[in-house]
Design a protein that fits this description.
Largest sheet: 8 strands, parallel, barrel
Shape: globular
Order of helices and strands: EEEHEHEHEHHEHEHHEHEHHHHH
Distance between the termini: 62 Å
Number of helices: 14
Length: 320
């Protein structure tokens, strides 16, 4: 329980068909390992977030060369691990590489069980075919699930809603349903290559847990000077999200996130339209959603080795 119940957030939601109760705001892991955030500050941010009621922890095997997982692992070691729903992501597309990355994440996070592991950066149309190959990454996660190393499986991506829909279809073809899907949901997304319009209804229909990210696009949306940080968070919270993940690199930013969820109330249709009208012109060409229109946010593009090799049968089909 939060140490100071008067200051605790109290808004929790159900994570799709898993039935897990998760905080409406989740703590992003990427910022925790930044060079501008020292280790003691990162530990303080994690533990304060938990004390104040945030129980959803986001991370990834590739964040800051592993520093983000290492720091979160340290923060959770002393009496905090059992208070949170812990999520991380892997980049490996092959079974072998996915297994290696997952085992490394387990060691860094000082845990024998990660609640949710997601296939990270599904941003290419070939990615779902690779992970669902017989020698693909999903086979590794299904084995880890059976072994009790993980509890749920999801995927993330930020490039194009059509790739998300394609991934859901490829999963169906293989008789598999994801527990969660993570995607950009923000005040500009509705106007350009929209995950909200095309993917969100399908997730709601299938009762898949919705993890919203990039509510401020790492602060880039705020540079449009059309909306405030709290408006960005309120908009994402107003969608049928299970969790809105937000990064915090200071105690002030953490307090801002806590204040946003504390003050959130369901928005009327008129309030939503007013907010979207403010961002329409700036959002029309994806200028402030660079994760859709550039490769700047595509970490696997600069580290293709993280994905692992193509499967053996694919290599055998290639001409000599």
């Amino acid at each position: 329980m939060p140490k100071n119940t008067a200051d605790a957030i109290t808004q929790y939601r159900v994570l799709g068909k898993t039935g897990e109760r998760v905080s409406a705001i989740g703590l992003g892991g990427w910022h925790l390992g930044l060079p501008t955030v020292d280790e003691q500050l990162s530990l303080r941010i994690v533990r304060t977030a938990i004390d104040r009621g945030i129980n959803f922890m986001d991370n990834s095997w590739d964040y800051n060369g592993g520093a983000s997982e290492i720091r979160m692992g340290k923060a959770l070691r002393v009496g905090y691990r059992d208070k949170v729903f812990l999520m991380t992501k892997i980049d490996g597309r092959s079974k072998q590489e996915a297994t290696r990355q997952l085992d490394e994440s387990l060691r860094r996070l000082h845990t024998d069980r990660i609640d949710l592991v997601q296939h990270h950066e599904i941003i290419r149309f070939e990615d779902p075919h690779r992970i669902f190959d017989a020698e693909g990454a999903n086979a590794a996660l299904v084995e880890a699930l059976a072994a009790g190393k993980i509890r749920y499986i999801g995927f993330t991506g930020h490039k194009d809603p059509r790739i998300h829909l394609h991934t859901l279809e490829v999963a169906r073809e293989h008789g598999f349903t994801f527990d969660t899907v993570q995607m950009p949901l923000n005040v500009m997304d509705a106007h350009y290559r929209s995950f909200e319009k095309f993917v969100l209804p399908e997730l709601v229909k299938q009762n898949i847990g919705v993890l919203g990210m990039k509510s401020m696009a790492n602060g880039i949306i705020l540079k449009s000077r059309t909306v405030t940080a709290v408006e960005c968070l309120h908009y994402a919270l107003n969608l049928p999200t299970s969790v809105v993940i937000t990064g915090c690199d200071s105690m002030e930013i953490l307090e801002q996130a806590l204040d946003a969820v504390r003050t959130f109330r369901p928005m009327s249709a008129r309030q939503v339209q007013t907010l979207l009208a403010k961002t329409k012109a700036a959002a029309s060409h994806g200028e402030f959603e660079l994760f859709k229109t550039t490769s700047i946010f595509d970490s696997t593009a600069t580290h293709p080795d993280w994905l692992g090799e193509e499967s053996q049968h694919v290599r055998e089909m290639m001409p000599a």
